[in-house]
């Protein structure tokens, strides 16, 4: 599914949180949003999901304005895994993932065997199939994150929005998740802090103070000069001889002077 935004923005009172974001994301693309803390990544994802009242600008899904769609129509197209998900403590892992099927159900189309298969497949994809009966409240942080991703997969969306999906995950599950989402036949937009992981995206958008200040391939966007200006780090590109890919080693710019002062 293609997602296009025009002059997307949002203000909290007098403070402009996201300003004038115009983007065109192609069907099947994996698009990473990067930027320092508070630069507006989560707010931009929420704007793309149509969750923010009084949004400025527009969002088009395959040329259809998001605002013209009903909640159910949006939920059949977009799944969103936010950073902090409120889920009732009384639910089991299976209940949470089954919630992903809600947009596809109605009084005449109740939950059926096909939905159960989709739920099982989603749990399998995140390695949680053996935990179906476990209570949500008893899960670890990383397990909760994987279950929320399974819920989003069970929704069978055409656009998947993920806000820092690798948070809480151990390194194996971080890499497995990024591989999983990049192989999905859907458009994926994800906010990431790990810039080496961001290198794996098809394209990156860089947020700074609410503005989209750069957009392009990882190699175009992640230059040592930009990383120094935006993230205040010295980024040294290193080459992995295993596959000739580029990795960055980071050093904090300004941290040395702070340490010397102490
Ligand atoms: N409802 C709100 N009212 C006031 N300020 C808000 C509101 N929501 C977000 N902000 C502010 O907007 C800015 C951007 O927040 P946002 O969560 O989008 O940033 P982010 O880039 O996702 O940050 P992080 O990397 O820390 O998760 C922050 O300074 C935040 O405090």
Automatic annotation (TrEMBL):
The keyword Transcription regulation does not apply. Residues 1-234 form the ABC transporter domain. Gene3D superfamilies: P-loop containing nucleotide triphosphate hydrolases. GO terms for molecular function: ATP binding; ATP hydrolysis activity. Coiled coil: none annotated. InterPro entries: AAA+_ATPase (IPR003593), ABC_transporter-like_ATP-bd (IPR003439), ABC_transporter-like_CS (IPR017871), P-loop_NTPase (IPR027417). Keywords: ATP-binding, Nucleotide-binding, Transport. This is ABC transporter ATP-binding protein. It comes from Pontibaca salina. The lineage of its organism: Bacteria, Pseudomonadati, Pseudomonadota, Alphaproteobacteria, Rhodobacterales.
């Amino acid at each position: 599914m293609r997602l296009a935004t025009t002059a997307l923005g949002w203000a909290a009172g007098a403070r402009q949180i996201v300003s004038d974001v115009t983007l065109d994301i192609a069907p099947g693309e994996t698009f990473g949003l990067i930027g320092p803390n508070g630069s507006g990544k989560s707010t931009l994802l929420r704007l793309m999901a149509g969750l923010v009242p009084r949004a400025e600008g527009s969002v088009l899904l395959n040329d259809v304005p998001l605002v013209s769609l009903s909640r159910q129509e949006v939920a059949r197209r977009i799944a969103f895994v936010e950073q902090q998900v409120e889920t009732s403590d009384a639910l089991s892992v299976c209940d949470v993932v089954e919630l992903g099927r809600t947009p596809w159900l109605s009084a005449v189309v109740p939950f059926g065997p096909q939905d159960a298969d989709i739920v099982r497949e989603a749990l399998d994809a995140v390695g949680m199939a053996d935990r179906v009966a476990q209570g949500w409240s008893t899960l670890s942080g990383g397990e909760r994150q994987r279950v929320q991703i399974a819920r989003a997969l069970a929704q069978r969306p055409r656009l998947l929005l993920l806000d820092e999906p690798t948070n809480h995950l151990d390194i194996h599950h971080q890499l497995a998740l990024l591989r999983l989402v990049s192989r999905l036949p859907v458009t994926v937009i994800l906010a990431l802090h790990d810039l080496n992981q961001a290198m794996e995206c098809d394209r990156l958008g860089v947020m700074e103070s609410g503005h989209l200040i750069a957009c392009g391939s990882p190699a175009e966007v992640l230059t040592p000069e930009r990383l120094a200006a935006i993230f205040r780090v010295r980024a040294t590109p290193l080459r992995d001889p295993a596959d000739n890919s580029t990795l960055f080693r980071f050093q904090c710019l300004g941290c040395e002077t702070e340490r010397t002062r102490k």
